[in-house]
Amino acid sequence: WITTTKPGDPMYIAGVKEFINFAVKNGGGNDRFPCPCFMCHNLLHKRVDEILNHLSKWAFDRTYTRWIFHGEAKEKTLFMDDVSEGYDSNEGDRLEDMIHVVEENFDGNPAMFETLLSDSEKPLYNGCTKYTRLSSVLKLYNLKVGGGWSDASFTLLLEAVKDMLPEDNVLPGCTYEA
């Protein structure tokens, strides 16, 4: 349902309910969970009502098919092979690794946290509802890592994509701004 349905579809709504029940059951009594909408990408912790609101406005992050931030085992099962056709299983692992690196660097650096928080809420360009500055950088960075691109080639890609987007876009222009 994550990759084949949209908000409002009965199958999507049933899947979201299944996900929320799973998260609460495996949440260890927590009242906040990483939000799996494509705007938050599990970077922001929200209450269940806020997550439901996000998932009704924005789609579930289509790359998040193993709910490792919500209690599912990290090991990939045979069942997940069937469910996640076309999904790069390493993409979620790389994102998880990046999140842990960022979390470690938050200690004593609230400015970095504020920047990431701001970037996770800032639309890529005026009127864009699919990507934020942070989600677009993470998506492109996953391509860089997966393809083994150099920083120079990644900068060329960023420059080209930035030029293709509307002028008010906030995509970084080089690797070091990303």
TrEMBL record:
It comes from the Eukaryota. Residues 1-72 form the Transposase-associated domain. Pfam families: Transpos_assoc (PF13963). This is Transposase-associated domain-containing protein. It comes from Beta vulgaris subsp. vulgaris.
